[in-house]
Amino acid sequence: MSIRHPGHRWPSLILLGLCLGYAITTVIALPHLFTLPILGLWLALAWGFRWGAPKQARAPDKVWPWSLFPLALWWLCIYVTNSYGRVDLSAILFHFQAGVTDHGGTGRILYAIVHTLVGLLMLAAFTWLVRVDHRWRLLEKVLVMFLLAFNPLLFGITRQGAAIVAEDDSWLDRRYVPPVIEKAPANPPNLILLYLESIEGTYADEARFGDAYDDLELLGQRGLVFHGVRQIENTGWTMGGMIASQCGAPLMPAGLMHDNQFEPLHHVVPGVNCLGDLLDAQGYRQMFMGGASLKFAGKGLFYQDHGFDRMLGREQLEKRLEDPEYVNSWGINDDSLLDMAVTEIRQLAKKPGPFAFVGLTLSGHPPYGYPAQSCYDRQGEFDGVNILYSVQCSAFLARRFIERLEAEGLLENTLVVVASDHLSMKNSAWQRLIEGPRENTLMMFGNGLPRGVIQREASTVDTLPTLLEAMGFTISSHRAGLGASLLSQAQTLVERHGLEGFNARLLAENALQQRLWKQADDMPPPTTAQNDTARD
């Protein structure tokens, strides 16, 4: 049957109206229920203007609409926005270059297939409309410009290109203070840094989220809780968040400046010193432990490049499970991971000299989380959708982990840091999350820190100097990277220039990007011997 058959009119118009409603509600973050009134308005206009059946009809013209490609780009943008909450071109670029194999997002494959099929049907329906209605043949040429001008995906490309011609593309680089430890305490403390996947401090608002964050509230009473730690551009995914908090700089992908831009990365931000490099120079034994694959997004490469002795991920930890089937699509469940982490910390504590342990959980991963069996036993049945169940699970497991370490005497002369790696991407509580300002989780206790709350307008790049000073190290002017210690009076870039001002400078920056990656093309790929350090 020809696509121009009159019987296609209302099915095509209904499909186009549904797609339009879905697009509008996704982009402006409305509940998808509002798709229905938008569909109603679209159909009313279609009936009133006789779209697809004009009174003075002309012969159908077998043309291909100019706007097919812009519409396809919009559909891609809508898929990304509905999946993650926003289009982050930097995250897309970095993951393609650092590696997207061994990820746990297999559940999104069906979602992507459905979007692709609906997108193809949408393009077919629009082609029918343009061919049978000469008014749309005229209108869609204007529509092309609108679609290209307002696509958020193209905004990102334009902003990346703007850095090349910016009048001042080194504004942030001039404010970058290379991290240096000027003086160390006589008895340097151990460090336990636990990243909670997507468990942002916003969940502490009981009016919106009930008791989901209560265990972390109780944990924070042990020491200092930092409020106002915002998320800047290029830090909104796991590697971006970890690099910002450990290197004092946002993760600006190598992108087009990398000589081998279409080849996988062999090193991650080799041009700057990060927490691991600084502690390695102080004689620390260091390890990273996470439930997901070390290969995903360059995690293993980053820690290997920056002073860590051992990195344990899914590949190494699965072998230790009593039940090999007790895993989730990303990797090791958090109760298993943290049980193993206690064992590793015991071993680290037995050896002379200070150690640093960095862990990364999985329970809070959007859109619904991956609660562990220990949480089912405590919280009851999980409906498979409610992210707040997973937030509560992650908070409980983090608190239990710290309490176990304390009970075994493993927190003596130790700074403990609990932080979110980044703000959550789109999840089942999204409408409540975006109702107001959002902030990351950051709390520190031990090593003589007082108890209390520090309210500062800051970002995750301020974590590095704050952490170093909390450990008793002396750093130049209370600064490291782009960050300022929140334990000092030094002003943060967010306090001085505002979040929007900081982001605007970041998006126009080129020199700092070159600093981050300046040695990447000169350094050889890791050898087999180097890769062995990532194995258990």
Automatic annotation (TrEMBL):
Subcellular location: Cell membrane
Record carries keyword Transferase: yes
Keywords, comma-separated and alphabetical: Cell membrane, Membrane, Transferase, Transmembrane, Transmembrane helix
GO MF annotation terms: transferase activity
Region Disordered, annotated ranges: 517-536
Principal location: membrane
InterPro entries in UniProt: Alkaline_phosphatase_core_sf, OpgB/LTA_synthase_biosynth, Sulfatase_N
Membrane-crossing residue ranges in chain numbering: 12-28, 34-51, 63-81, 109-130, 142-158
Cross-referenced CDD domains: LTA_synthase (cd16015)
Start and end residues of each Sulfatase N-terminal domain: 245-472
Membrane topology summary: Multi-pass membrane protein
PANTHER family hit by this protein: LIPOTEICHOIC ACID SYNTHASE, PHOSPHOGLYCEROL TRANSFERASE I
Listed name of the protein: Phosphoglycerol transferase
